[in-house]
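Researcher: Quick one. two chains, 544 residues in total.
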Amino acid sequence: MDWRAIDISLSLALWAIVLLIPLATLLARWLAWTRVRGRSLVATLIALPLVLPPTVLGFYLLEAFAPGTPLAALFRALGGSGSLAFSFEGLVLAALIFNLPFAVQPIERAFEAIPPHVREAAWVSGLGSWQTFWRIELPLAWPGFVTAIALVFAHSLGEFGVVLMVGGNIEGVTRTASVAIYDKMQALDSAGAGRMSLLLLAISFVAIAIVNASARRRGGPE
Amino acid sequence: MRLREERDRRPRGKTDGDEGRVARLARAAVSRRQLLAGTAKVAFATALGLVGHGVRTPPEARAAEAKRVEHIAGRTGAPGVVAVAAASSLRFLLEDLRRVLRKEDGLELRVSYGASGNLARQIMRGAPFDIFLAADEPWALAVAKGGLSEGAGLVFGLGRLALFVPDGSALVADGTLDDLGRALNDGRLMRFAIANPTHAPYGRAAKEALEAKALWQPLRPRLLIAENVAQAAQYALSGGADGGLIAASLARAPALAGRGRSALVPADWHGPLRHRALLLRKARKPARAFLAFLATPAARALLARHGFGVVHSNDGVARNND
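Model:
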C-alpha cells in the first residue's frame, strides 16, 4: 500500500473542504436568494466543471499556472517556491475549481429549501442577520453541508485526469492515491493496484452512505 | 447587507402569532438533537481525515523513517532525497537501484516515471525534479538547450527494443518481425501495442522498426498506442494485445518474462536509444552523487543486468546530436 499517496490524497481532500466550504457557503447563499441579473451566468460558470472534460480543465489550469502568469507570480509573492504546476499547492487550487459545483450546488439547494417566512420570522423576533445565519439558516441547511463535504471529499480522492495533468505524478508531492493506482498498473503491480482500489472503493462507499443518510434526515422546518 | 435592509423595512413585531411561531421554529432549528447530530457529522468527517493522517505510515515504515531524520523534515527539499524524472523503460532498474542506494547511502530516490517527451515538457514548465533520465537524446538535449540543466549531462546506457508476446498469443516471438507480417495477413493478430511515437522514445523506435519492415502502414489500424512504454508493456501483458514492441529492460523483468516470450529487435532498425542523464538546475546536493553513481562499474553492471547496452566512454558533455 502506498501510504504516502493516501496521505497526499487525504491532505488534498481536507484542504479542499476547509477552503472551499466557506467560499461555497457565500456563493450558494447568494445564488439561492438573489435575483440580480448575471445570477444564471454565475450559476453556469460554477456548474461548468461538472461537464467539462478533465483534459480541458487540466489544459487551462496548466496554462494559468505556467511560469510568468499572474497566478504564478502571486504564488511566488506568497512565498511559494518553484512552479505552481506540479506542486501540492497547485493541486489544492485545482481541487477548489474541479470541486466547485460539488460544494456549491448541495448547499444552494439546502438554502433554497428554507422558506422565506422562516428567515423573516427570525428577523422579526430580533435576530440579527449573523445570528439568523448561525441559529436558523445553518442548522436548517445542514444536510446540504454534509452532502457537500462528503462529495468534495470523495471527488478530491477520486479525481484523476486533472490531477495527473496539473500534478504530474510526482512521488511524495502530487502522486495521489488514484494516480498511484495508475502508476502501479504501469509497474505491472496489479496486486498493489488492487489493494489501493479496494481502499478507495471503501472510502467512496462510506462517503455516499453519509450523503444518503443525511438526505433521509432532511426534513422541512414545519 | 441586503438582508439587513429587508429586515429594517419591515415593521418590527408584526403579530404576536408570528412571533410565537418564530420562537418555536428557532427553537426547533437549533434543538440539541440536531446540533449534536450536526457536530457528530463534522467530527466524523474531520476524523476521517485525521485518522487517515495518523495511519499513513505502518510501524515498520515509521521505524525506517525515524532512522533518517532528514527524511521526515519535509515532503520536498529534505536532504538525502533526490527527485528523479525517469523514462518508463528504467522502471525496474531504478526500483533495484533505489533499494541499493537506500541501504548503502541513505539516499532516497523519489521517481516519477513517464514518457521522456512528457517529462521533458513538465520540466520545461517548472516541475521540481533534480535529475532527468531520458530514454533518448533529443528530449534531454531540448531540456539542456532551454538552460534548465547543468551542462548536457551524460549518456549512461543504450536501450534495446524487444518484441514481447504474452502467453496465450498465437504470435511467434521473433525479433526480425517476420511472423508479425504473416500474422497480420492470416488473422492471428488483432491488436498490437506500442508506445506513442510522438513523445515516447521506444514508441518512436518501434515505429521506425515497423517502417523498416514495411509493416507500419498495414499495422496502423490494429495498434494500441500507449502513453509510455511501460503502459505498452501493460497492454501487451494484460490489455488484450497479442504482442507489443517494448523496451528490452521491461521485457526481461520478472513480471513480464514470467508471462510471455520476447526477442530483441536488431538495433540498427531504429535510431539509437541513448539514455541520457541530466542534472537539473537547482538540483539538491545528493543529486550530484546520484549522477556520479550512474557512471560507476556497479551501476554499469546493474544496467547490463537489466538489458541496457553499456557506454564505456563518457562522451556526454561534448556530444550534441543536432
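The domain at 61-158+273-305 of chain B is CATH 3.40.190.10 (D-Maltodextrin-Binding Protein; domain 2).
Researcher: Thanks, that's what I needed.
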